[in-house]
């Protein structure tokens, strides 16, 4: 830990600090690390609007044509600022589940969006659709994530105590045309989770 980080966290290790703040159950836990204020004037505000699930090609994701067993990187929340939008904490794996996990359903239950920030040491994991994989894998130390639940089931992240073994997720809504929208999240461990920290499974 750098001297600067040490100063910010009052001498606690980063992980201890995060655990402490997570225990406080507040999305503001990451205030020292993430410039929430740059894009969320009030992170606890219920005034956040639902926004389209925007794919990397700029199109609006739709239940009727998004492939089964497929993932793309989406950015949330978007600011319009190219540099800010590249932050790891805004990156999510938008997954349509494989058929055997319900990916063929024509509703929002076929979809997941999990934070790409691995719960171990914050590398970026991704979904692998290949036969025999069909799971999230982190390239750094081998943590693997269940696409159905976001639970780490192998590797160092799987050994961490809840909520640090379950990925934060976004919630969806669909309109009558099948277009998918991200519902305003609540950044708390008992709701959508806290990016880089985790989520309790209800
Ligand atoms: S950072 Fe992902 S397994 Fe260590």
Automatic annotation (TrEMBL):
SUPFAM superfamilies: ISP domain. The keyword NADP does not apply. Residues 92-173 form the Rieske domain. Keywords: 2Fe-2S, Disulfide bond, Iron, Iron-sulfur, Metal-binding. GO terms for molecular function: 2 iron, 2 sulfur cluster binding; metal ion binding. Gene3D superfamilies: Rieske [2Fe-2S] iron-sulphur domain. It comes from the Archaea. The keyword Iron applies. PROSITE patterns: RIESKE, TAT. NCBIfam families: TAT_signal_seq. This is Rieske iron sulfur protein. It comes from Cenarchaeum symbiosum (strain A). The lineage of its organism: Archaea, Nitrososphaerota, Candidatus Cenarchaeales, Candidatus Cenarchaeaceae, Candidatus Cenarchaeum.
């Amino acid at each position: 830990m750098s001297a600067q980080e040490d100063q910010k966290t009052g001498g606690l290790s980063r992980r201890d600090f995060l655990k402490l703040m997570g225990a406080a159950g507040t999305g503001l836990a990451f205030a020292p690390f993430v410039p929430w204020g740059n894009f969320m004037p009030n992170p606890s505000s219920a005034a956040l609007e639902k926004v389209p699930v925007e794919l990397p090609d700029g199109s609006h994701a739709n239940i009727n044509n998004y492939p089964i067993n497929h993932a793309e990187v989406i950015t949330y929340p978007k600011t319009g600022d190219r540099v800010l939008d590249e932050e790891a904490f805004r990156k999510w794996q938008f997954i349509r589940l494989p058929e055997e996990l319900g990916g063929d359903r024509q509703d929002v239950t076929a979809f997941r969006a999990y934070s790409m920030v691995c719960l171990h040491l914050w590398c970026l994991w991704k979904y692998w659709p290949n036969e025999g994989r069909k799971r999230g894998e982190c390239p750094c130390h081998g943590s693997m994530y269940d696409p159905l639940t976001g639970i780490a089931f192998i590797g160092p992240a799987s050994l961490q105590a809840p909520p640090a073994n379950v990925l934060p997720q976004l919630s969806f809504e669909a309109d009558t045309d099948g277009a998918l929208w991200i519902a305003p999240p609540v950044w708390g461990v008992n709701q959508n989770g806290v990016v880089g920290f985790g989520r309790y499974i209800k």
